Amino acid sequence: MRKEVLGILCSGRGTNLESIIKAQKQGEIRAEIAVVLTDKPEAKALERAAQAGIAHHCVDRKACATREEFEEKLVAALEEAGVTLVVLAGFMRILSPYFVRKFCGRILNIHPSLLPSFGGAHAHRDVLAYGVKVSGCTIHFVDEGMDSGPIILQAAVPVMDDDTEDTLAARVLEQEHILYPRAIALYVDGRLKVEGRHVTILK
């Protein structure tokens, strides 16, 4: 079986990155984490990668003249590290078809709602505004749409009457930290079968 090599893309605190690193160090994810990339130099994810001894650097979107230049630099860094699976862990950029095709079927993302409901950048706000009683998180393959790829795993959490965006986000984040390492492990172990929109978990 081919050894998978992970490249993790982050934009912020890197708490999902931390959960992935922990699972990898405990042997739950049988793959190398080769590089952590961020699009913002102030992203705390860079500190977390440094503390774990993982190669890391920022491809600053603001320093790139175009989106194309930015994504070409990301792709170059991932390919140089030998990455076979791209993991988006709080990466707040919509990736173009160019990037998606470079790693077709090999990009995972986590989203803080039960897709296909409440896609986009403001899931918790939209959940609360709509008045639904259940929210959660979704891990999915990335395709050329926004939050539209085949779903791998989901976890539900209740929405409380007195929830704010922050309290709901904290409850969902607890499930994200459990679910994302599990989904990555399933991919790495070759246990995901994708047929159209349907993802089957193999025994």
Automatic annotation (TrEMBL):
Q: Which residues form the Formyl transferase N-terminal domain?
A: 8-184
Q: Which InterPro entries match?
A: Formyl_transf_N, Formyl_transf_N_sf, GART, GART_AS
GO MF annotation: an example: phosphoribosylglycinamide formyltransferase activity
GO cellular component terms attached to this protein's record: cytosol
Q: Which enzyme class, named as a word?
A: transferase
Output the superkingdom of the source species. Answer: Bacteria
EC number(s) on record?
Answer: 2.1.2.2
Residue positions annotated to bind (6R)-10-formyltetrahydrofolate are 67, 92-95, 109
Site (Raises pKa of active site His) found at 147
Q: Where are the transmembrane segments?
A: none
Catalytic residue list: 111 (proton donor)
CDD domains the UniProt entry points to: FMT_core_GART (cd08645)
Instruction: Please give one Pfam family short name.
Output: Formyl_trans_N
Q: Does the keyword Hydrolase apply?
A: no
Binding of N(1)-(5-phospho-beta-D-ribosyl)glycinamide, residues:
14-16
Reaction equation(s) it catalyzes: N(1)-(5-phospho-beta-D-ribosyl)glycinamide + (6R)-10-formyltetrahydrofolate = N(2)-formyl-N(1)-(5-phospho-beta-D-ribosyl)glycinamide + (6S)-5,6,7,8-tetrahydrofolate + H(+)
UniProt keyword annotations, A-Z: Purine biosynthesis, Transferase
Name its pathway.
Answer: Purine metabolism; IMP biosynthesis via de novo pathway; N(2)-formyl-N(1)-(5-phospho-D-ribosyl)glycinamide from N(1)-(5-phospho-D-ribosyl)glycinamide (10-formyl THF route): step 1/1
BP-aspect Gene Ontology terms: 'de novo' IMP biosynthetic process
Q: Could you say which protein family the record assigns here?
A: Belongs to the GART family.
Q: What does this protein do?
A: Catalyzes the transfer of a formyl group from 10-formyltetrahydrofolate to 5-phospho-ribosyl-glycinamide (GAR), producing 5-phospho-ribosyl-N-formylglycinamide (FGAR) and tetrahydrofolate.
Protein name, entry field: Phosphoribosylglycinamide formyltransferase
User: To which species is this protein native?
Assistant: Selenomonas sputigena (strain ATCC 35185 / DSM 20758 / CCUG 44933 / VPI D19B-28)
